[in-house]
Specification:
globular; 10 strands; Rossmann fold
Length: 163
């Protein structure tokens, strides 16, 4: 199996509770800890591109992600991303990239809280990136969606198909 690139962009997955500010913030990515805790035996390379809340993500940020995906030697890429605009980034990437399998994933609860869905979502994404054909997908809570056919329901916190 070829090496899998994991790109970190931020989102709730990597947030921590700052007791001084009494708010969620970023310090560093938790992806290496997630891989270790999940006993990942895959050949992966983790690169942190940014640590941003997805509500603050711009098309310039999406272009950075797209450029990195395009230049990466790996054809299998998992991207950690905030859930609020994950669908927008997936569509952006799908309109610019081809020939690679890209899976975006995230978490509704920060990894450091212990009750996070991030570990499960990362495991599912690593399996899916190996099994799915070339294209851009979103993987959350055991389900995957094609870019352009997914939205987050902000009332329920679930992802669903558009059609």
């Amino acid at each position: 199996m070829p090496k899998i690139k994991i790109l970190v962009t931020g989102g709730t997955f990597d947030k921590e509770y700052d007791e001084i500010k009494q708010a969620l913030s970023f310090k560093q990515t938790h992806v290496p800890a997630v891989l270790q805790k999940g006993r990942c035996r895959l050949d992966v390379d983790v690169t942190t591109l940014m640590l941003k809340d997805s509500l603050q993500m711009t098309d310039a940020d999406r272009q950075i992600i797209s450029d990195y995906c395009q230049k990466a030697a790996e054809t299998k890429i998992v991207i950690t991303h905030g859930t609020d605009t994950m669908d927008q980034t997936a569509e952006f990437l799908a309109s610019r990239l081809s020939g690679k399998t890209i899976v975006l994933t995230g978490a509704m609860v920060p990894y450091t809280f212990g009750s996070s869905d991030g570990l499960f979502n990362m495991g599912a994404s690593l399996a899916l990136v190996q099994a799915l054909p070339a294209g851009v997908f979103v993987a959350m809570n055991g389900t995957f969606f094609e870019a352009g056919n997914v939205r987050k329901n902000r009332d329920t916190g679930h992802f669903s198909k558009l059609r």
